[in-house]
Inverse folding.
């Protein structure tokens, strides 16, 4: 593996680890990488995947950002004060505000299909909002050689890709080997996140003293 992982070097690494350079295998490597990226999107939660979107809320529905995976928080600013909305189920939101024509300060939000949020009550006027969420990193390709994962957790992506390649290679015995390496890398990343959160909390406590 090269010093800095890129999409091209990852393809090369997978071919080297698999000891296969025939066309049928090589043509499948981009699919293995895509499957690995989906795995990481579901299993990795870190600062690199956390994004923020701001805008103006004027209706009871809000489109989710592209590549959204999980919501961290949603808040609105009313009278100069930031108000964090509480997440509830779709049924709860509809029961709480059954008539969307009745407006008020938003209090709750929930998933409305996969691509939208439902906000209740409906706001009577446009108000600023901020959404914090985890996103699926931009997929790697020949045109997009790097992303957060390649820069900060390259081993995680490599092992995940090799796991996805083993069924094609008909080497189920090697899945456990790469799974162990993947789990170790994932644990290390999780520990970094835990230490950072603990440090942030300690800093906040000191500031508040």
């Amino acid at each position: 593996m090269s010093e800095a992982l890129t999409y091209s070097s990852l393809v090369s690494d997978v071919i080297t680890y698999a000891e296969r350079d025939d066309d049928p295998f090589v043509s499948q490597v981009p699919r293995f990488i895509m499957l690995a990226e989906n795995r990481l999107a579901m299993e990795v939660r870190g600062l690199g995947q956390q994004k923020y979107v701001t805008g103006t809320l004027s209706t009871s529905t809000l489109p989710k950002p592209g590549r959204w995976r999980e919501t961290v928080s949603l808040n609105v600013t009313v009278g100069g004060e930031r108000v964090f909305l509480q997440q509830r189920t779709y049924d709860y939101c509809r029961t709480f505000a059954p008539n969307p024509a009745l407006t008020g300060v938003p209090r709750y939000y929930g998933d409305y299909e996969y691509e939208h949020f439902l906000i209740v009550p409906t706001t009577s006027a446009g108000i600023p909002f901020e959404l914090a969420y985890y996103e699926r990193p931009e997929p790697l390709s020949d045109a997009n050689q790097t992303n957060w994962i390649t820069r900060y957790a390259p081993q995680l992506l490599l092992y995940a890709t090799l796991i996805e390649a083993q069924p094609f290679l008909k080497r189920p015995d090697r899945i456990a080997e790469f799974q162990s390496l993947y789990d170790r890398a994932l644990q290390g990343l999780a520990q970094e996140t835990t230490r950072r959160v603990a440090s942030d909390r300690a800093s906040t406590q000191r500031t508040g003293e």
Observations:
- The chain has a mean pLDDT of 90.
